Amino acid sequence: MLTFKVLAALLVYPEQEVIDSLDEMEAILERERLLPAAERNGVRALIEHLRSADLMDAQALYVRLFDQSRALSLYLFEHIHGDSRERGQAMADLIEHYRSKGLEVDAAELPDFLPLFLEFLSLQPLAEARSLLGETVDILALLHARLEQRRAPYAAVLRALTALSPRRPDQAAIRDEVAAEAPDDTPAALDESWEDKPVTFGPEPPGRTGASGCPAAASVVDRFAPPVR
Questions:
Q1: How far apart are CA 1 and CA 66, in angstroms?
Q2: Rounded to whole angstroms, how far apart are CA atoms 143 and 160?
Q3: If exposure means fewest CB atoms within 10 Å of the residue's CB, which of 4, 53, 93, 108 is most exposed?
């Protein structure tokens, strides 16, 4: 479904070619109507923001949000593994899963980059795409809560993705997580954040020996890991 491609495009750095495609993106959302009306209106508000904003201002906002705040990282496995060795293996497994479905990953981008993941989902049958999206819904909902707290227009995309998931996130745990967080977009806080552990919503599931962080979101690692022989 092209809706996934639209949401992916809205989460990449806003180059002029992205701005030039906004009308087409809006038309796709209206034609497919995959998103509920409230979420579709929210995404349209982001599109209008990007359409009317000065390009340099839009780019500066994107950098401030996604490049200067580790809490808003668009790399999924960073929220599960942080910088641990397990993240590398998880990404290798994800690349193999992409290849098994006919998608070759450009070496210039890491496979757990959310827009790339959404591009992959756009190539899958809708039921499977939504199921895979559900494996990451706690991460998506956490990003949504953090963006909403910052009153960032990009929150609409994460809200839309959460709505597409067949599994509901643990909102109580997410509220607790966000409420306990201190701002991490100052230079000093950013330096300190690189030493933090991955986000944790609860105890590790029994028997897990690698993926840390949110146990529900960590299931995406199992979903893409090759079977044990």
A1: 26
A2: 12
A3: 108
